[in-house]
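Sharing a chain and its predicted structure for anyone who wants a worked example. Both blocks are below, sequence first, tokens second.
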Amino acid sequence: MALKKPTRTLKALGLDTVPALAPLTYPGRPVTAPALLVADELHDLDLETPGLLDDVLRDRTPVLAVGSNATPAQIAYKLSRLNLPATVPMIPVETHGIGIGCSAHIGRNGYVAAAPYEAPGERRTLVVTWLDEVQLKAVDATELPNYRRVPVPGAPVPGLQIYVSEYGVLTDPATGAPRPVGDQAGLLTALMDHSPALHALLGPTPRDWVRRAAASPAVRERGTLLLQETGRRSTPWHL
């Protein structure tokens, strides 16, 4: 297996926070170098020797992460809570034409999650998670029905997939441009400042927002409708 020492725990690396359990930390800290997640540890991956990665990536589907799935603790949490092996290659790659905005809905954990949109000319480094068949189904279940998995046009990795929001992305009413995800607390504060109705339903603080939203599907549904009134645009993904 194409591994290099040392092996380091997520806690020692400061990567052990799970956004699903700590919503205001969303989207979490992504991996910054090729790594193999194994439960609560990261192994460095060797990309320099041709062919050494074949046994690691074989029979796995590459999925591009634009939000918390780039965070090893989030992936480990999604898999381990189902008693699935949390062994996942995670490799940053350079992408073209993909912007990252905010999905125009409130997720089950209470936060406003990231969503991609087509952005010709943009270049950014994003993390690819390589999931086996069982892991892919498990991660799909955490994304549906709010997202659907589609191929990435002009992908830097053959067969690359990405989760696209069914709600579109939020726009800034002042500029019409997609809102960046950024700091979750700052995002929620800005949304409440713009919408008195959202402030009344979920405020007055970001901590109140995530607590109330996570506790009630009805509140999330109402909040999503109010959120969309602040501005959104559809995001057709051309295959």
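Comments welcome. The mean pLDDT is 91.
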